[in-house]
Prior knowledge:
It is globular and about 55 Å long. It has 15 helices and 14 strands. 43% of the residues lie in helices and 18% in strands. The chain is of the alpha/beta class. The strands form 4 sheets. A 6-stranded mixed β-sheet has the order 3-4-14-9-10-13, sandwiched between helices. The protein has helices at residues 19-33, 36-50, 60-66, 84-97, 111-123, 133-138, 140-148, 163-177, 194-215, 231-237, 265-268, 306-313, 324-338, 344-355, 377-383; strands at 5-6, 9-10, 56-58, 69-74, 102-107, 126-132, 152-156, 181-183, 222-226, 246-254, 270-274, 277-281, 317-323, 364-369. It binds pyridoxal-5'-phosphate.
Amino acid sequence: MKNGFYGEYGGQFVAETLMPALNELERNFFKAKNDANFNNKFLKYMNDYAGRPTPVYYAENLSEKYGFNLYLKREDLLHTGAHKINNTIGQALLALQMGKKRIIAETGAGQHGVATATACALFNLECEIYMGKTDAERQRVNVEKMEMLGAKVTVVDKGSKTLKDAVSACLKDWVANVDDTHYLLGSALGPHPFPSVVSHFQSVIGREAREYFESSGKLPDYVIACVGGGSNAIGIFRGFMDTEVELIGVEAGGLSDKPGEHAIRFSKGQKGIFQGSHSYVILQKNGQIAPVHSVSAGLDYPGVGPEHAFLKDSKRVKYEFCRDEDAIFAFYELARNEGIIPALESSHALGYIFKNSNFFKEKNILLNLSGRGDKDLEIVREYRGGSLS
Ligand SMILES: Cc1ncc(COP(=O)(O)O)c(C=O)c1O
């Protein structure tokens, strides 16, 4: 990253009024990154509160069934059930350092909203979470959790009523309240310095995974993760960027390749500016943002973080996709063979390897299990026509 850009991607395409806040965040972030006190505090909360380090689990039953060696980085075991807590604790500490009293955040699947509400309860910060109406309906339990934790949940009844509309609502709120408010962005996207901030706090995942493999004497052949905005993927990839390990990001293939039925930003999108940065985005013929679809509320976003765009062009990471039906298959496959119910987001990364199991024969695969699937039971029930069994 140089001057806020990863190659040609990234930047700060925002209203002039936000520039002082982005500059303040950038200053504080780079100061904190090199400050032993800040880092110790972050790691203490990660270990004692969030439950780090998370284990790497060898999925013996599935490995035997499919003929590869599958290792799962268990971010699902963290407090609040997903990797999102790494970033919210990190950014809440930055907000305290900047003297901000109010936090706003967007959420799709609700995991980032719950993790933000949790960090705000912990650090006594006022909290407002924006969530699209469609997402609030399909992730009702997470809305209740956020409210229990003391957050105000504002439902966004505009556009596609999903994550992108929640991000837009946050940017609008931030412009109006920038003096006392920190926007705690939930993925490695948006204007600089957010992609760097989020990937830095998530890089703890890759660091731990690398240590695990180094202590066992051999790196994996592949590291694979699902890509919504891109935070869990960049978090684990960071640990292996300087190696020969092949890195694969898996996007939401939705129902089909038809416009509106997927969220495949790389092979079906194009370069463009969206929500504060230059990256890949799915556009309609008239240049407007296209509707996208995924069975998973955390993956149906038309844009993607700028570092991923750079990694795609430089060919360091390969980007593939997984359809809804293959993700649902994987959801059950992990539950029934290993006793772990994965988030539907993580199920996309799993679905991709099951679908391509011949290709991965005898290979060692490390997969980032970004979250647990309790939040998705209602979606899966509906998908299967009313029954989970
Ligand atoms: C469990 C889980 N995994 C993955 C994602 C996708 O986001 P990201 O690409 O930023 O990791 C989400 C987003 O809500 C999530 O809840």
